Protein 1
Amino acid sequence: MNDLELLIRKCSEEEAENIRRNNSLDSSQVKYQVNGITYSSDCSKWVSSKIDFINQYSPKGVKPENYSCAVLLHVVPGTIEALRIYRDSDDKSMRVRRGPRGSFGIPPALCDWFNNRIIKTQTIQVTNNVLTEFTNNPSPELLMNEKNEYATFMAFSPKFLDKRHFTSLINRDRMSWIKTSILWTLWRSEWGYRPGQERIIELDVSKEYLDSLFSSAASHQKSDMPSIIYQTDPDRRIIGARWIRREEPYFVKAGHTTHFGIRREALHNYIDRISQGNIKDITEKMQDIYHTRPLHPRQEILNMLNLVPVNYDEKV
C-alpha cells in the first residue's frame, strides 16, 4: 500500500460507516434543514490531502458537532493529478470544484470514476471538531526513470556546460542547488529564458545517492557551515486551460518540493563523480512545451522525459 495516494474526508459517523462498508463515496442527494425547511442538494463530495482544509470543512446537512469521523481514502496513484485535470473539464457535470490548495469537490457524476480508484478506507475519530490523529505530511514526490533512478534538475549559465560534462568555469566554492521538481525548475528559470539560467539539465541519480543527500542534509542542518543542506519550497503546477488562454499567472503553488544545497566536498563529488556522463540537456525539450502550450503540460513533460511521479519512502 505504500505506493498509493492518500486523501481524507471529514464526515458524520453514519457516512463514515457507509463509506467503510461500501468502500466508496455516496453520490446520492443530501437532504438538510434550514429554518425548518428541508432542502435537497447534489452537493460535491469534498476530499483533501491537507489537514488544514479538513479541519475547516463544513458540509451541508451536517452540524459541526456531528463531524465525529474522518475517512482516509487510499487511492490509485495518479488520482490527485487526474482530479486537478478534471477541474478544467469542459463538461460542467464532470468538473471538479475548486477549493483551498489540496482540496477537491468531486461532483456526483464523477463519483463512480473516483470510487473505482479507491483501494482501501480507514476511519478515525475526530475530537472537538478537530482532526488530531492524522497529519498528512507525505514523503516528497520525486520523478523516477525506467531504471529506478531519481531525476534531479539544475538551471545555470551555458558557460558551465560542455555537452554532457560541467566545464572548469563552474564555481566549486559557492553553494549549488539540486532541485527535485521539474515544474519548480521551469518556474524558477522561466523555461530557460532567465539570464544566467539559460540551460536546464536533468541528472538521474541512484536511490543510494539520494538517501545520502537526505540523511546528510538532516544531520547537518544545525551546523554553521554544512556541506549539504535541504530546503523546502512551495512547488508549482500549471493550469493548462489558463495557460492556453494566456492568462497570468498559469504557474500556481501546489504542494512542496525539496532542494539540496551542496558545496565543498559534496559539490566536488557531484561534479567529478555523480554527474560524469549522466547530464542531459533538456532545455530545447522544455522550450518546445512552452511554445506548443499543451492542455496537460505536466503529463506532456513527464512523457517527453520518460519519468513517472513516485513518493520517496525515506523520512526527512
Protein 2
Amino acid sequence: MTPGSNKLADQFDDSFDHFIYVSRDVVTGGSLSISLTVSHDIGTYKSHYHAKLLSKTSISLQGYSGKILVFSGKDNGASVLIQHIIIGKGNTAYFLTMFSDRTHISADKALFKTIYRTWKPT
C-alpha cells in the first residue's frame, strides 16, 4: 500500500507490474462529479498510455454509481487492456483499475469482475 497525501489518494498497487490499482478520494467543499471525473480520466489514459476508449458503461456497486471504462493502450511498450471503474456517492470517489497483458484478456476480465463485485467501500 502507498499512503496518500493531501494531493494523492491512498493506493493499493503493485509498483513493479502495475496490475491492480484501487484508490479512494474525497472532494472537500462540494460533491463529486462523475461526468467530470470520467472526462478527466479518459484524457489521462489517452495521454499517458496512448489509450483508445473501447467502451463506457454505467455501473452500480454497494450503493455507489459511476462508469466502467475499457481502453486498449500501451504500458512500457506492451499492449494492454485497461479496465477502469469510477464510482462515487456524495463527496467520495473510488477508482478500481486493472491493467491486463493482451494475451490474458479473457481470464483478466473474469478476474476483474470477481474483484469489483466483491468490493466494499471503507
Protein 3
Amino acid sequence: MKRRIKELSPESLVVLPVMVAWALLLGGCATHNSPLSATESGSGVRDERPVIGLQHDGPIRVVFQISADEWKDGVGKGLLQLRNLHQAYTDVGVEGDRLQIHAVFHGTAAEHLLTDSAWNRWHEESDGNPNAELVGELARRGVAVELCDTRRVANGWSKADIHPDVVLVRDAYERISDLQFQGFAYIRF
C-alpha cells in the first residue's frame, strides 16, 4: 500500500539526520544535493535513480552512544566515524552553530578516552593512547566527546586519567536521554 506524505512533522525532521548519518556510516559516501548522472552497474545496466542528499538544512543535532571497544585503521572505530560524519556535514556546508555532535562513551569503549600515561598503565604498554590525537582533533572540530563518570569510577580511574578534551557526564544513559529530549537524533554505534 502506498501512502503520500504531504508534509513532514517536526518529529520526522529529527529522524532525517539519523538517516543521513547511517547512510554515511554504512555506505562511506558523501551526500549530494542533486541527483547523480546515470551510472552503469557491473551488469552493464544504466541506473537513472537519483541519490537523495541532505534535505534538512539545520540545525543538525546528533548524539552517538559508543560503548564497544572496536577498532579500525589503528584507532577507535567510534571516534573515526565521528570524524567522518563531521567531515561529511562540513563538506556539504553544514558547520558551526548549525552542527552539534555529541558522543557519549561508556562500557569497554571508555578506555579510548584515557591519557597516554593512563593508557600505558591500563594496557601495560609504553606507546600511549593511539586515540589521543583523534580525541583532540574532534574537540577542535567542536564535537563534544563525553565519558560516563560512573564507568570512570568503576574502572578506578582518576579524573586526571581522562583526556583533557573529554567532558565527564554523571551517567551515560541519563545524558543520552537528556540530549534526545533536547531534540538530538540518537545513533547507537
Protein 4
Amino acid sequence: MLEHDIRYTTVEDKPFLKQMLSNPEDLKYYEMSSEKEIEMVANSWINCAKQKACITLTINGIPRGVASLIISPYKKMAHCGLFHIVIDKDFRRKGLGRALLKNLLNLSKNYLNLESIHGEFFGDNPIIHLLEELNFEKLAYQENYVKEDNIYINRSLFAKYF
C-alpha cells in the first residue's frame, strides 16, 4: 500500500474532489451526470466537513480520496449516516479505498456515535467487493433502477451496523 495520510476534509479539497468525481468512466457509479450535478454533489460532500463527517486521504499532501457521511440534522435520524466514497482513478487497487473506508467506519462509530452507516451504489461499482469483505449487509438490489443513454443500471444498498 502507498504511504498516505488521512485527515478531516477542508474546503480546499473541493477542486480535487470535483476532479475525482468527473472521471467519465466512473460517472456510471454515481447519481450525477452533468457538470452542474457534480458541483452540487461536491458541495454536499464538502458541507459534511463542517460536522467533521468528511475525511480526505492524501499522498504527498495531495488529496487522492474522499469519504463523506451525510448525517441528518433531525434528532430522530441522527443515529445513522449516508456515506459516499471516491478514490482517484490512478490510485485504485492499492488498498487506499480500504484504508479510507476503515477510517470512515472508525469515525462513524467512535467519534460521531452513529449506530449505522448506509450507502447506495450503482452498476458494478468496484467498491461493492470491498463492502462485502468488510461485512456490510446488502439491504437491497434493484435491477434497471436508472436509465442513462438507453442503458439500464442496477442499484445496490448496503449498511454497516455498529
